[in-house]
Amino acid sequence: MSEEIIKVSAICKSYRDNLNNLEVLKNINFTVFPGEFLVIQGPSGAGKSTLLHILGGLDNPTRGKVYFQGEDIYAADENTRSSFRNQKIGFVFQFFHLLPELNALENVLLPGILKSWWERKKCLGVALELLERLGLSQRLKHRPGALSGGEQQRVAIARALINRPQLLLCDEPTGNLDSENGKKILQLLIELNQSQKITIVMVTHDQDIACGAGRIIHLKDGVLLN
After folding, report:
1. Structural domain of 218
2. pTM (2 decimals)?
């Protein structure tokens, strides 16, 4: 396989709780390769979301390094890391985090709000294309409250893809959906991975959802088991 897109080296994460030191992640090491669909599976409280946030530059590790295409993302300042997140990574969360006052199209366009006028114009075309591909061309003007859970998650996925990221990080993306919509979202992610060659890392506690991935690694009590 080609050179890794993500390399995680000896990542540890701990928090101070009064006089105690709570270790959430303990010496985590693994790689993710371009075009891969990797699932990190484990029970609630295993440290999955914390690890995903560290991969995406959202939460500094206590120790260790995360390399994105060979560059240590935590060696950069926060402004550089913010630009990296916006341009290179798309995030999909369990709770859709759509702005209720904006319609579906406006929510998808949000990551491009700081771009130049010409770039924003190009983003509009990309957003319309994404929403049509995701079966939402008739729901562009609907606000989140008028959309089903599955539709809201598809809007969130379109928003994550608007800047054509190289890596999509998904934190329990089916966890807030019923089983039918959960299967549809998983199938959509698989199709995006296969047709667009987007690298996907997804965390889940659901064994059935995990089975749709190309590779599964397991996390328990902050320790990577394989």
Report:
1. 6-224
2. 0.87
Q: Is residue 1 part of a domain?
A: no
Rounded CA-CA distance 153/199 in Å is 19
Alpha-carbon distance of 143 to 152, in angstroms, equals: 9
The residue type at 57: G
Domain with residue 114: its CATH number is 3.40.50.300
CA distance 33 to 4: 4
Q: By 3-state DSSP, what share of the chain in percent is helix, strand and coil, each rounded to 5?
A: 40, 25, 35
Place of tokens 């260790």: 64
Strands 6-17 and 20-32, by their bridges, are antiparallel
**Cβ pair 109, 127 in contact under 8 A:** yes
Query: Are residues 202 and 40 in contact, defined by beta-carbon separation less than 8 angstroms?
Result: yes
When divided into structural domains, the chain yields a total of 1
94 is a domain residue: yes
pLDDT in tens, 168-225: 999 988 888 888 888 888 888 888 888 888 999 999 887 777 677 788 999 999 999 8
**Domain assignment of residue 199, yes or no:** yes
How many Å apart are CA 158 and CA 170, to the nearest integer? 13
The pLDDT of residue 115 is 63
